[in-house]
Amino acid sequence: MIKTIIVVGGGVGGTMTANNLVSKLYPEISRGKARIILISNSPWHYYKPAFMYVAFGAFYKEELRRHQASLLRPEVDFILDQVDDFEFKKSRLKMRSGDTYEYDYLVVSTGCIPSPERIEGLVEAGDHFYQHEPARKLYEKISTIEKGRIFIGVTFPKTPNVPHQCGIAPMETTLMLDEFLRKRGVRDQIEIVYTYPTISQLVRNCLFLQKDTGAVLPSIFDSKGIVHKRSFTLASVDPERKVAISEEGDEEDFDILIQTPPIRAVDAVLNSGVSQAINNEGWLPTDRYSLQLEGFENVFVMGDTVDLPISKAGGSCHNQSPVICNNIAGLMRWGKTVAEYDGKVQAIAQMGMDVGMPLWYDYEVDVIPTPPTKIGGLMRKSFNRGVYWSVARGLV
């Protein structure tokens, strides 16, 4: 009997996992014993981390996308549709088109959605770079401002120990902004203020989620004249006065407010009734080692949709994907999971427009900061301009 494995989500996690499943299960696929399906609600695949560069005029939209089907191995059946309901107990998906799909194994890689509407006034007065159009809007502002105050803030999910999307990005963009404004010749007339909330989920009152990085950031910011402020948890924004108001009772004025927005799971995940996350954020309860959905042996969760204390970024997906593929193969062939995820994430942080800092960490070991170099910057540029697409194809 043929086994059907469905991957839901056409981001980097879902795309590489569908391709990796073909490699892992090729003997079964070639004998007609297994079928791999990827479902996405868009015909396009976007390199979303590069939206950060759009905010600095460095990428055009057309450079950041490929046809989803072109990134998949020919053995993967691509279905353009949207999941409206995950029926985990029935191992079934209900689709926007009215179709239903039954599965033997499921991988949920549906990402998260920036939701600035969850903070009063943030839609009207805030900017971010996690989607293309908001990033373009931000570029128009920072490329024309001549003087004033740019206020940068970070919003964490309310769910304990769940980080915000792409944890290093606010720090990266702060340093890129400093250099961008210097090249424009207006940095001396513009104050940059970087802030971090009181409780960064791991109960540290610092400037970054991870301890060592949080310790070294003040000196980096001081050397560039970037003001930094701890204990600022955004509660609301007054668009008319251009004031950010914190839960701690402080008020900060701004000319531009760059705020990491609240995030949540997609509607179908929210409506599944399985999430235990507070504030209706929708993160799925995920075994931190096997990556199985708790209570459902045949369902795996990855990327931004998990409730784990690990970065919601492509560097997480890159390490989660082989674990999921090995565990699905283990269940099919031996009746048990065979691999464990150790929380590993790797990335190259953009520490300015042209320098980069390789970093890696896991459940047990925090990021150990290393000196930013131009070689690191070249590595990041090579990833942005080409390596990423090989990663998505499961080749790297």
Fold and architecture overview:
Helices cover 28% and strands 24% of the residues. The mean pLDDT is 93. The two termini are 32 Å apart. The chain folds into two domains: 3-112 and 265-344, FAD/NAD(P)-binding domain (3-Layer(bba) Sandwich), CATH 3.50.50.60; 115-262, FAD/NAD(P)-binding domain (3-Layer(bba) Sandwich), CATH 3.50.50.60. With 396 residues, it is α/β, with parallel strands linked by helices. Helix 1 runs parallel beside helix 9. The protein is built from ten helices and 23 strands.
Give a quick account of the main beta sheet: strands, pairing sense, barrel closure: 6 strands, mixed
Q: What is the arithmetic mean of pLDDT? A: 93
CATH superfamily of the largest domain: FAD/NAD(P)-binding domain
Shape: globular
Q: Which segments are poorly predicted (pLDDT under 50) over 5 or more consecutive residues?
A: none
Number of domains: 2
Kindly report the spatial arrangement of strands forming the biggest sheet: 5-2-1-9-21-20
Number of helices: 10
Brief characterization of the structure:
The protein is an alpha/beta fold and 396 residues long. It contains 10 helices and 23 strands. It has 2 domains: 3-112 and 265-344, FAD/NAD(P)-binding domain (3-Layer(bba) Sandwich), CATH 3.50.50.60; 115-262, FAD/NAD(P)-binding domain.
Question: Which SSEs are present, and which pair or pack?
Answer:
Layout: E1 3-8, H1 12-24, H2 26-30, E2 34-40, E3 44-46, H3 51-54, E4 65-67, E5 76-80, E6 83-87, E7 92-95, E8 100-102, E9 105-108, E10 113-114, H4 122-125, E11 126-127, H5 132-142, E12 148-153, H6 169-184, E13 190-195, H7 211-223, E14 227-229, E15 234-238, E16 243-246, E17 251-253, E18 256-259, E19 263-264, H8 267-270, E20 292-293, E21 296-301, H9 314-333, E22 345-350, E23 356-361, H10 374-392
Parallel strand pairs: 1-2, 1-9, 2-5, 9-21, 11-18, 12-13, 12-18, 13-14
Antiparallel strand pairs: 3-4, 6-7, 7-8, 10-19, 15-16, 16-17, 20-21, 22-23
Helix pairs in contact: 1-9
